[in-house]
Amino acid sequence: MQTLEGQSVVVTGGSRGLGLGIVEALVARKAKVTVVARDAARLADVAKTLGVATIKGDASDPQVALAVLRDVKPSVLVLSNGHAPEMAPIHKQTWDAFSAVWNADVKASFHWVQQALQQPLARGSRVAIMSSGAAIAGSPLSGGYAGAKRMQWLLAGYANAASAELDRGIHFQAILPRQIIGDTDLGRAAAAGYANAKGITIEQFLATFGKPLAPRQVGEHVATILTDATYESGIAFALRGDSGIQSLDA
Q: Taking the model in full, what pTM does it have?
């Protein structure tokens, strides 16, 4: 896939945060983007601002995944919806809070990946699953978040194996920003939790990651992974503000 121009792209969770940064980058490359999200007001705003199509729905609902892929028939699918975890140490977590990201992010990835394989998407299609560096380093104040993000990474590998077995010709990739991104609501809340635990300011904590990584920069990296032959066959990539895109494949 050398260009995104004219390509039909579905982005879940694309009305805010990292998802919005990805949508902005894709629109700049003249992709035909459809955003799936739950907040009608945010969807209306992104439609007005960027001229994208929108669908109101819960990305973790299997019927939403089925209907959107059936009706839109994208050649690129970006799964960037994300649940904000409750920030608390393990002894202060409830099971519902601990498992919430599994029942949102992992559940959504599971259903969209299944539908991509079962409908299926057209041969040559790409699916990008937005995971997190927490899948590598852990995240002790966010309950089951790190495990959920690791599972999303694993799902990309499982899906590629299924694609090969079924001769689908669909390629799945996991993308892991390896630093907390303070320009999103989720990132700001996470940074606040860790900064408070360390007794430092949010800005001081975010500075420990080095060069910041903004949502639009994440979007630019995602667009590059989708179009640059260097990344065409890889499965997992880390993103950092100071080093850009790095392969995580063994």
A: 0.97
